[in-house]
Structures are given as C-alpha cells and as structure tokens.
C-alpha cells in the first residue's frame, strides 16, 4: 500500500503470450464487483505497467502503470485500455506535452479549423476527424456524420482551403491525425481548454 493506492506485483508463471488476457479477465471481474474502500465506495483507477522479464526492472513497470493512470485521467473516455502497452499514440503525446509546447505545435496544424468552427459554430473538426478515421471514404464519412454527400463535399472543400489541398497526402495526413489526438488531449485537461484560448487570443 502507498497512500491511497494498492500496488500489485504479479509474477507470471505461465506462457507470456497470454499474460495480458489473464490480467484483463481479472480486471473485468474486479470492476464488476461492488468494490469498497472502508465504508465508502471508490471509483477504481487501474493502470497496468509495462511487462518486464527482469525483476530489476520492476520500477519501470511501476512508473508506466502510474503514467497509464495519468493518461486515463487526462483523456477520459478516449482511452479505453488499462494497459500501458495499448496507449501507443497517447504515450507519445504525453511525453511531448511534458517537454515541448504542445499547444504551439497543435495550432501550427489546426488553428485555421479551430478558428473557423469557433467563429461559425461549424463542424469542420468533427468532419476532419471522421474523414481521416474513414480513410478518406466519402460515403462512409457521410454515413457516420449523418449528412448528405453534398454537405460533406462542401466541408471537405473548406478543409482543403484551410489546411491545403494536400492534407490527405500521407505524411501531412499522419501529422494532422497526430495533432487531432493531441488537441483532444489538451482539451481534456482539467485546467480548461488551452488550445482554443490561445488560438483566439
């Protein structure tokens, strides 16, 4: 026990390829139970650190478990995994946010879209995110957004004007997708909405 935390160290004695599934099943059973601390119900915050082969690396596993919980608290429903190994892009974003001005980088790519949506109460950010998630499929994007094709075409034309008509080219597209995740990471901060405030100041 450490303050209000319980820290478990699991030693794997079975096939290492199944460790995550076994931990996941244990977590699901725990979450389903009426978990209590003393007489007060408590919201569970669970983080599973990096799997390590050597016991001398336990500190690394512990630190990454703490980082997992930190990212979960920051991103809320965007992060649906208890495992550090599953957080991929959010690990990178969290690291960048600690060492660089993430706001500035996000604005470099997304400020025109952020400002447009703010000024016109638009849906360009939602459209951009969905269009990228659908790998540029206009039919699937329109279906997910519940809009007619003509509305979608108009929004895509506006995105091309704001981001450049090459925004779907491979490298630029990857950067924009990363910035979208970073933008949501910043917005989910308990400190408010730094990206929008900076972009309009």
From TrEMBL:
Pfam family for this entry, one: HTH_30
Domain of life: Bacteria
Every PucR C-terminal helix-turn-helix domain range: 124-181
Xref: InterPro entries: CdaR-like_regulators, PucR_C-HTH_dom, PucR_C-HTH_sf
The protein's name in its UniProt record: Regulatory protein
Source organism of this protein record: Mesobacillus boroniphilus JCM 21738
The organism's taxonomic lineage, starting at the top: Bacteria, Bacillati, Bacillota, Bacilli, Bacillales
């Amino acid at each position: 026990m450490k303050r209000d935390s319980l820290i478990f160290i699991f030693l794997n004695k079975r096939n290492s390829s199944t460790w995550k599934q076994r931990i996941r099943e244990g977590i699901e059973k725990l979450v389903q139970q009426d978990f209590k601390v003393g007489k007060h119900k408590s919201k569970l915050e669970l983080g599973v650190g990096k799997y390590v082969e050597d016991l001398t690396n336990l500190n690394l596993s512990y630190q990454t478990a703490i980082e997992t919980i930190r990212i979960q608290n920051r991103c809320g429903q965007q992060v649906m995994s208890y495992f550090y190994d599953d957080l991929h892009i959010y690990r990178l974003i969290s690291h960048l946010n600690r060492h660089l001005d993430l706001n500035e980088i996000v604005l470099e790519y997304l400020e025109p879209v952020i400002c447009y949506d703010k000024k016109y109460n638009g849906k360009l950010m939602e459209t951009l995110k969905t269009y990228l998630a659908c790998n540029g499929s206009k039919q699937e994007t329109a279906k997910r957004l519940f809009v007619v094709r003509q509305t979608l075409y108009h929004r895509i034309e506006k995105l091309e004007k704001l981001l450049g008509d090459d925004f779907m080219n491979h490298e630029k597209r990857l950067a924009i997708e990363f910035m979208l995740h970073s933008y949501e990471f910043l917005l989910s901060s308990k400190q408010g909405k730094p990206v929008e405030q900076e972009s309009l100041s």
